[in-house]
Recover the amino acids of this structure.
């Protein structure tokens, strides 16, 4: 079968790499892709927001599967578009319906869903300009840190964690006044949870589910988890503290009730669920749901998966997912992300890159790169992800760092401490 991957980051490059290994896949396509994906997939020049054009191209190229990387097309209803048009009945979208994508697209929707199904998460209040005073009273009567979240999608920037009471009140007002546009016309105020974060990934057909390898990502730009938040500077899988007891709690208290909620509500959900979790004491809580895979977690998770991802996607699309334990490589995978100088602030693009021909046992996943005059150049903040395996986190990350040293471009930066907090 022919498959189209939507997206152009390291996550989608990893989908390309993994799907290219499947005997079920004939031709791989990607839109918009990046400077490295052409090794695996043909790039389609189409505006992925224009579902009609995407559909027409899919019919021309006999593409029967669309695998969606980022959240935006899902929140915009790409699944619903294809399911509701008779002429596209041969095309399956891997990703939830618009309603299912609300688990990521609306924090208030996700919190209500978790409350309805008794899924452990931080206590919360939903505030709009109509009940601003109850939000201000809540801040007045409680100690910080205060967690304020824009309800809608805000490019990963919509969560503020504030120590000071007066600052929190001011920020609440400015969020409701449009600090994040319409995304913050509703704000969720949450109790602060103090613990260690990790992520678990599930693939579901809306009835049954399988669990992919877990991962921990590194969001801050600076070593020792300091500085500004980024899209993600690296990832490690497996997570050493994710032991059998915690695993069981996550499955019983979070995954099973989440799938039950999806079923009960009749939500059409044929895709990935990314559980952003935090361990507080010995117990897991949901920080957030995402309706897609994580980036750069995918770059560490999929290389550990032995099962055929396409086979799983076909089962999902046909609502025949067989619940089973997936098979994972028994090694650590560590991903180190090379970024442009200045990221996550402003940075320059178009820097020529030099990449060694041989990458040893490591795998390179291009992210913000493109090809200009036959030369790979930088084209984004997160430029390239390097994944390596090892029997210890240390040995794996050392391989990634060795290769990171050999790749050259002006302004290159990466964190040298990915996974260090997990090494005992
Ligand atoms: P979110 O977009 O909901 O994942 O939030 C972004 C980041 O803010 C998370 O990865 C956490 O580091 C932090 N965060 C969100 N909610 C809470 C909370 N209730 N308590 C502590 N930290 C939080
Ligand atoms: N790495 C976090 C995310 O994909 O949202």
């Amino acid at each position: 079968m022919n498959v189209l991957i939507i997206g152009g980051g390291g996550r989608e490059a990893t989908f390309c790499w993994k799907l290219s290994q499947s005997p079920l896949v004939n031709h791989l396509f990607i839109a918009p892709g990046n400077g490295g994906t052409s090794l695996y997939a043909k790039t389609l020049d189409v505006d992925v927001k224009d579902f009609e054009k995407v559909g027409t191209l899919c019919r021309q190229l006999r593409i029967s599967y669309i695998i969606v990387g980022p959240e935006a097309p899902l929140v915009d209803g790409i699944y619903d578009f294809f399911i509701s048009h008779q002429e596209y009945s041969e095309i399956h979208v891997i990703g939830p319906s618009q309603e299912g994508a609300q688990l990521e697209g609306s924090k208030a929707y996700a919190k209500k869903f978790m409350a309805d199904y008794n899924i452990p998460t931080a206590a919360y209040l939903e505030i709009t300009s109509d009940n601003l005073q109850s939000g201000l009273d809540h801040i007045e009567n409680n100690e910080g840190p205060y967690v304020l979240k824009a309800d809608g999608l805000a490019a990963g920037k919509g969560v503020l964690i504030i120590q000071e009471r007066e600052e929190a009140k001011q920020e609440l007002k400015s969020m409701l006044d449009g600090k994040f546009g319409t995304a913050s016309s509703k704000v969720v105020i949450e109790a602060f949870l103090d613990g260690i974060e990790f992520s678990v990934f599930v693939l579901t057909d809306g009835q049954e589910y399988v669990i992919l390898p877990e991962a921990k990502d590194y969001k801050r730009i600076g070593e020792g988890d300091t500085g500004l938040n980024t899209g993600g500077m690296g990832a490690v899988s497996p997570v050493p503290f994710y032991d059998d007891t915690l695993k069981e709690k996550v499955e019983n208290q979070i995954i099973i009730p989440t799938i039950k909620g999806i079923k009960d509500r009749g939500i059409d959900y044929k895709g990935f669920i990314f559980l952003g979790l935090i361990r507080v004491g010995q117990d897991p809580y949901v920080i957030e749901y995402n309706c897609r895979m994580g980036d750069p977690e995918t770059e560490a998770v999929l290389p550990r998966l032995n099962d055929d991802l396409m086979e799983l996607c076909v089962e999902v699309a046909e609502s025949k997912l067989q619940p089973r334990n997936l098979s994972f490589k028994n090694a650590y995978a560590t991903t180190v992300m090379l970024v442009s100088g200045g990221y996550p602030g402003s940075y320059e693009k178009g820097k020529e890159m030099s990449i060694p021909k041989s990458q040893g046992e490591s795998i390179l996943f291009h992210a913000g790169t493109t090809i200009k005059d036959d030369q790979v150049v930088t084209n984004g903040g997160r430029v390239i992800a390097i994944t390596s395996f090892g029997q210890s986190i240390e040995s794996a990350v050392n391989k990634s760092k060795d290769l990171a040293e050999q790749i050259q471009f002006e302004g290159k930066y990466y964190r040298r401490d990915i996974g260090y907090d997990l090494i005992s």
Summary: Residues 124-190 form a domain with the Dna Ligase; domain 1 fold (CATH 3.30.1490.20). The chain has twelve helices and 22 strands. The first strand starts at residue 2 and ends at 7. Residues 122, 147, 149, 159, 161, 190, 192-193, 197, 276, 287-288 surround adenosine monophosphate (ligand 1) (CB under 6 Å).
